[in-house]
Amino acid sequence: xxxxxxPPARRASSPxxxxxxxxxxxxxxxxxxTRQKRWMLRIILLLSLLGILIGGTVVLPGLPLTxxxxxxxxxxxxxxxxxxxxxxxxxxxxxxxxxxxxxxRGFSTIIWVVEGGxxxxxxxxxxxxxxKRIEDAIGKHTTDAHMARATYERTKADVAKAEIAIDAxxxxxxxxxxxxxxxxxxxxxxxxxxxxxxLGHSEDMxxxxxxxxxxxxxxRFTVKQAELELGVRETAVMVLDKxxxxxxxxxxxxxxxxxxxxxxxxxxxxxxxxxxRDRAIRELDECVITAGRTGxxxxxxxxxxxxxxxxxxxxxxxxxxxxxxxPDLTQMQVKVAIHESLIDRIEKGLSATVSLPELTVEGTVxxxxxxxxxxxxxxxxxxxxxxxxxxxxVAGLKPGMTAEVEVIMATHQxxxxxxxxxxxxxEDESLCWVQTPTGFQRRVVMLGDSNEVFIIVLSGxxxxxxxxxxxLQFVDEAEGEARQxxxxxxxxxxxxxxxxxxxx
Length: 504
What we know:
Layout: H1 22-54, E1 74-76, E2 78-94, E3 97-101, E4 107-113, E5 118-120, E6 125-129, H2 132-208, H3 213-286, E7 288-290, E8 295-297, E9 316-318, E10 322-327, E11 332-339, E12 351-356, E13 359-368, E14 384-390, E15 402-419, E16 424-425, E17 430-436, E18 439-450, E19 454-459, E20 466-468, H4 471-488
Antiparallel strand pairs: 1-20, 2-11, 2-15, 3-10, 4-6, 4-9, 5-8, 6-7, 11-14, 12-13, 12-15, 13-14, 15-19, 16-17, 17-18, 17-20, 18-19
Helix pairs in contact: 2-3
């Protein structure tokens, strides 16, 4: 088989040409055009093959691109109004709720609760709590109250007895004892007077010689003894009045004060036990909670991390825990959680559109939380801030309804915009591809504010330009050839930045 690049086979009978032979020259001249045609055919086939494999063109900086094969969409750059907003899901609630709380101390178990969303009338039962613990408490506190009453009465009698003991001492034992000492004192005074008379008589008789000196000395000793006895009796009266009486009175008054203090303690203990008994009786009545007015009854919202509601039959509740809510349907609001990246743009007074299943309401941002809501596995560890949107009084709004809230953060009028999908963000710049008569051209653009669909163009594009809506697809098709072109360039040559190139 003949090869395209090999010369024709020579006949076996043909003699070998020699230098200067005319036959050899003719053969060489005849084969040159054939070789050139064959090399051109090879080049054409190679270029065709490369075109089929590449399916695109090489993009050079600053030069228009040739059209690419494959479908692509464009958008005409124009001026329009741009509304920048954030949309989040929220839940309707009332800003004025009547809270129905548990008034029983400790923990109680719910044995029945009205269904959420029920419209109740005054006196209708809302919640029933278990009463066994309270009934046991009533029995115990009643017994304690009776025992405290008995102790109080005994102490009260002891106080009265202590008060009587003071009067009994002053009017009884003290007087009797003092009278005895006074009588003994008078006897001692009488004995002293008698002894003194006897001494005087014996001294007179001694001077006359009728008695001996020994008898006079005996009478003188009797006088001394009577004087001593009189001093003892006087001292006993003085000690009784000045010391014994005061000591006894202080003792009796101290006992009275102690009994009065014990009486106060027993009285307080009695009041405490009776108060516990009475409180338990009141709590027994509060185990059945009834409605105080007509209205809608709903359950309080549970925390996001809880898998079951807080209020249900069999659940345990504590004192002052909110069991039910009776919302004011004329004062409704919706709570939404705004991502931390946007919370700086949310402020009080911004307009918001609240979309409900069959209703759309215009509201106003009422408040923005200064502290982020707790984040965890239930929120995907996303940090958000609670924002309250106030709603006007509209019929049909009920707590718990799911709403889609669009908060208007900014409104730009008559600005140049392009679709967000037409912009490719790199590490250093933002790019758009514009359709021109000669193909597609890459443009570096400066961008402004944006929403989910459009973005403001500050520079780099003109009104009326046609931008490609699928530049990533376009770059992906040309990326292989662009990289090959980059690899083939000599150092120092201009190169084309390609989406995904680590040098961009």
